[in-house]
Amino acid sequence: MSKPVVLITGAAGEIGQALVRELAGNARIVTLDLAAMPEELAGETTHVTGSITDKALIERLGAEYTFDTIYHLAALLSTRAEHSPALAHEVNVDASVLLLELAAAQSAARGQAVKFIFPSSKAIYGMPDLETKAAHPRVKEDEWLHPDTVYGANKLAVELLGAYYSRRYKQLGDAPAALLDFRALRFPGLISAFTLPTGGTSDYGPEMLHAAAQDKPYACFVRPDTTIAFMAMPDGVKAMLTLAATPRQALSRTAYNVNSFSLSAEEFRQQVLAAFPQAQISFAPDAKRQGIVDSWPMGINDSAARADWGWAPEYDLQRCFDEYLVPNIRQRYQA
Ligand code: SER
Predict the structure, then answer these.
(1) What is the CATH number of the domain that holds 185?
(2) For ligand 1, what atom is nearest to the CA of residue 155?
(3) What's the gap in Å between 188 CA and the centre of ligand 1?
(4) Per the domain annotation, does 67 fall within a domain?
């Protein structure tokens, strides 16, 4: 049997690199990113360097390949998006529509649904104040959907559009032979041992750790008590692959929370200090970025993902640090 053809946008980013590593060998992978793929992954994919906002380029990809699955990872993260909201719409929403159109056209032409896997975020939630945040530590999918950031609004918009393309696309015309199959995961702050995020607002976690491993001082831009959920990157990739592999009839929703562990910035610092006792970590809260993180829930309720497709993270807080982050980061910077 020929290998499935998979498109990964934003493939040179954090999730993209981790996903390519997992899929390599099992799929024919086409990658798209503004940047080149890192050297060690370059042989694993057919890489196209370009922008997801380039309509002609997306159409050319659609003409050249028939995709079984699209992992649409390219995005401007929350801090970066807040500096350029119009660009954020263009990258996070308009380009997503270009890809949804591609997937819709290919689903209709083949009579078989293209799977469209989309990383959404805890940022689609907006907690109005710290008291409410503390009172609702595990937010469910349909609660508090009033994001404070353009990034959160963008992600929520694409979730809604994806659900529309999956269920009602062109509902007043002739029914297409098949609709695309959109599935979104709402992730906590993902932490990788191998890459650093750029332009996010949960970045203080990974930044603290990577700075400590390099013996660099770090000033954390949120208060010590600031609490949100994080997840080890291998669990993020596992969640995407498991959701993608689940039969459609098992799914009761198009967007699922996936949770892992929650901790405060001070608890994060303590974990880092346990591994790197010399680390110089101070707190210098930035009122504006603090406001964004305060609007995100402390954790998310992932019981629907657990019930529908057997989701369970492999890394709890301690395993994440002791078995994944610390040894790999140590090795990375020693090398
Ligand atoms: N981790 C992302 C950010 O900080 C949220 O999805 O922007």
Answers:
(1) 3.40.50.720
(2) 6
(3) 8
(4) no
